[in-house]
Amino acid sequence: MGKLLASLASGIVFGIGMAVSGMTNTTRVQGFLDFFGAWDPTLAFVMGGGLLVTTLGYRFVLRNPAPLFACSFSLPTRTDIDKPLLIGAAIFGIGWGLVGYCPGPALAGLTYGYAPTLAFIPAMILGLLLAHKITAKT
Fold it and tell me: How many domains does the chain have?
């Protein structure tokens, strides 16, 4: 139960952070990607703040023998850059640039009830399921 509540609390804090920082506003995200037009640097500050918190947080958290709600840490072990990683990153980046959403802010954006967001979520889920099906064959 503690793991579920911690996950819920983390998700709520993340969603509030996305809303307060304006990252649920697709125009703001697309403005960041518009280098030669009306460039909006807000996303760079949000990313920088997240990177700072993560960097400091990992230094403290990894000093513990295990996380609070698991037997051990689950850290990535692969460091190679392969074709599926590059293709996935390209698809993600193109979709992010076209729509202005990545999964976290899109879910947080559901609270506004905008039609484009409500259309994006099922498309995102369909894409995730399709990617899972494609990668399961390889």
Answer: 1
